[in-house]
Amino acid sequence: MSASALTTASTTVPKQLVDRFGRTVRDLRLSVTDRCNLRCTYCMPAQGLQWLPGPQLLTVDEIARLARLAVEQLGVERVRLTGGEPLLRRDLEDIVAAVAALRTRHTGDKPDIGLTTNGLGLDRRAAGLRTAGLDRVNISIDTLDQREYATLTRRDRLADVLRGVDGAQAAGLFPIKVNAVAVPGELTERAPRLLAQCLRRGWQLRFIEHMPLGPHGSWRAEEVVGAQQVLTVLREAGFALTPVGRPDRRPAALWEVAAGSESDGQYYPAGRVGIIASVTAPFCDDCDRTRLTADGKLLSCLFGTAEVDLRGPMRAGASDEELARIWARAAWDKPRAHGTDDPQTISGGFTAPTRTMSAIGG
Predict the structure, then answer these.
(1) CATH code assigned at 325
(2) Cβ 209 vs Cβ 224: under 8 Å
(3) Which of 87, 194, 320, 328 has the fewest Cβ atoms within 10 Å of its own Cβ atom?
(4) pLDDT averaged over the chain?
(5) Are β-strands 253-257 and 241-245 bridged in parallel, bridged antiparallel, or unpaired?
(6) DSSP letter string, 196-248
(7) What pLDDT, on a 0 to 100 scale, did the predictor assign at position 13?
């Protein structure tokens, strides 16, 4: 869409979300809460954060309306529900059902619906979420060692999380994808062990580079465990890895893992491992995501500092057409890379967003 086309779009109803660099939005990251019941060291301080007051959160009806605009009018095909911890919303099943009732403009199918969760309580709700229309889950598990997990999350809840994974598998939410933040320290021991454990369980592991979205002042570029470092550790541990790439422009670059045995002789089957290298190998050039926070703010980039309000105009009586124009304008203004227009800053010169990851939505 050219600048002149965008001007015309200000008086017509937009049919897609495009930016000035030619990228088209297909993926909506939709946060439903900023609250979380863990206190992961890389994500928030031990005392937690100041949560949004309840009235500031989007209601189910408001979420449904904005999701309908995104999917049925603006071309979104995938919706990922995030937080905070989305399972803390008692009405999450209603939100999933509302999104599942939509039909994409391009194919007429329901959107692909995913959920990013820490897994606490998922065993009790997985079947209901699946019935409501949920397709898949990503579960954050940095380690399967109980003591390590309690240290990293400041909560001794690993057994509860594993029950959540079992519940997701029993409900037919496949594949199970596990997110693990690559942090310095015990990477050499922890990463190979976690990969082998996930392969044996049939889970797809994704290592995520530590991004500057935790407690303010806690992130340092020189401490980021990059993708190449993770790959080196895995290969030195004996894993045979073959690159696959980034299918469907998803964030994770994938590697096929050949079957093998750990140093103690325990067998693991073949599978895949992914790395989301937002810091050392960013994928901004083909990013197709838009983000909506739990209080109704649009972010065109995870690292962006500019927020565009949809909740305010919506509650003031804005029409669907007016909301679509606001969204299209925000998408058009998306920066070329990581909150700046200079790719050279990616090596460590991030402008940190004013919100942490739990408030933005993963």
Answers:
(1) 3.20.20.70
(2) yes
(3) 320
(4) 89
(5) antiparallel
(6) HHHHHHT-EEEEEE--S-SSTT---GGG---HHHHHHHHHHTT--EEEEE-GG
(7) 82
pLDDT of residue 145: 96
More confident residue, 350 or 98: 98
**The domain containing residue 107 runs over which residues?**
3-360
> How confident is the model at residue 29, as a pLDDT?
96
Instruction: Identify whether the C-beta of residue 110 lies closer than 8 Å to the C-beta of residue 102.
Output: yes
Strand, coil or helix: 231:
helix
pLDDT score of 215 more than 80: no
Q: How many domains does the chain have?
A: 1
Query: What gap in Å lies between CA 131 and CA 285, rounded to an integer?
Result: 36
Counts for the chain of helices (H) and strands (E), in that order: 11, 14
pLDDT at 339: 47
Element (H, E) at 292: strand 289-292
The two tokens of residue 267 are 């067998």
The reported pLDDT for the residue numbered 358 is 66
Percent of the chain with pLDDT over 90: 72
The label of the residue with tokens 């995870």 reads: 302
Residue 333 CA to residue 211 CA, distance in Å, equals 23
